[in-house]
Amino acid sequence: MTQGVPRHVGVILDGNGRWAQQRGLPRVAGHVAGEDALLDVLEGALELGIEWFTIFVFSTENWHRSSDEVSFLMEFCEELLVRRGRELAERGARLHFAGDLEDPRIPHSVRLNIRETLEVTTPNHRLNLVVAFNYGGRREIVEAARSLAADAAAGRIRPEEVDEQSLAARLHIPGMPDADLIIRTSGENRLSNFLLWQGAYAELYFTDVLWPDFNRAEFERALAEYRRRERRFGRIRDPS
Ligand code: IPE
Ligand code: MG
Fold first, then answer.
1. Are 182 and 191 in contact (CB under 8 A)?
2. How many angstroms is it from 174 CA to the middle of ligand 2?
3. Ligand 1 in contact with 65 (CB < 6 A)?
4. Ligand located closest to 59 CA
5. 3-state DSSP call for residue 206?
6. Which of 36, 122, 137, 210 is the Cys-Cys partner for 15 at CB 3.0 to 4.6 Å?
7. Burial of 57 (0-12, 13-18, 19+ CB in 10 A)
8. Taking every pair of C-alpha atoms in the chain, what is the biggest distance, in angstroms?
9. Are 65 and 110 contacting, i.e. CB atoms less than 8 angstroms apart?
10. Which residues pair with 96 in a beta bridge?
11. With 0-12 CB in 10 A as exposed, 13-18 as middle and 19+ as buried, what is 88?
């Protein structure tokens, strides 16, 4: 059986730095160029009726980059929220953030803007846009496990009651469905700690296109490939 439109698409936007280097520009120019790609793809996601769209914009490992690039990314994220938040809200997008937002390394004003955008877009339900920011999949699972352990220690749950559902209910965004399709640009064929739990059965789509060159047409190419895939979730092929 093939599929229609995926309910949840995850995207690892990658290749911004290389895009800039190829043009003799500083790495951050690639991040700037990636904005149009993102907005174009989001436009497509809204029109196609995709319910959940998760973008990996800053990983827990990205702190190891130069302090200039890290501060640029922080400011850029804030600026994007201010510049594009309202527009996305008007288009019916609800924003969510997945990741550790309490991290003191995140500037106060960034956290403030994140909180505001979350509030403004809460009533929306056309598209759930999840920004994975200071996010790591293993850490997300560890935090869920820690919360289960605390509940068990306090007698609120018995160890034998711990199951996939009770763990999933303690992930960053409890109502988030499993990812159906995960896209990664720039020719890297890895998940890099993205949606480890939610991506258990995701179809993976890798493309050599660098993120700033990605666009709605490339996104639709990924969706077409997804429709051709046969998803069996561990079952055998249907003989009919
Ligand atoms: C992805 O592009 C953007 C972020 C991780 C913020 P990169 O910055 O990883 O670009 P490359 O991989 O160095 O080309
Ligand atoms: Mg990269």
1. yes
2. 28
3. no
4. 1
5. strand
6. 210
7. buried
8. 60
9. no
10. 130
11. buried
| CA distance between the termini of the chain | 10
Question: How far apart (Å, rounded) are the C-alpha atoms in residues 146 and 239?
Answer: 44
What is the Cα–Cα distance from 172 to 190, expressed in whole angstroms?
A: 22
Between CA 11 and CA 131 the distance in angstroms is 10
Provide the token pair at 118: 């979350």
Ligand 1 and 212: CB distance under 6 A? no
Q: Is 117 in the pocket of ligand 1 (CB under 6 A)?
A: no
Whether residue 17 has its Cβ less than 6 Å from ligand 1? yes
Rounded CA gap, 16 and 35, in Å?
Answer: 10
Mean pLDDT by 10 residues, the chain (240 residues): 86 98 98 97 97 98 97 95 91 96 96 93 95 98 98 98 98 97 98 98 98 98 96 78
- Please state, in angstroms and rounded to a whole number, the distance separating the CA atoms of residues 120 and 175: 19
The number of the ligand 1 atom at minimal distance from the alpha carbon of 62 is 5
Q: Indicate the top mutation candidate among 55, 186, 209 to test ligand 1's pocket, ranked by most ligand atoms within 8 A of CB.
A: 186
* Cα 150 from chain centroid (whole Å): 28
Q: In this structure, which amino acid lies at residue 82?
A: V
- Length of the chain, please? 240
3-state secondary structure of 102: coil
Give SS3 for 17: helix
- pLDDT at position 1 is 52
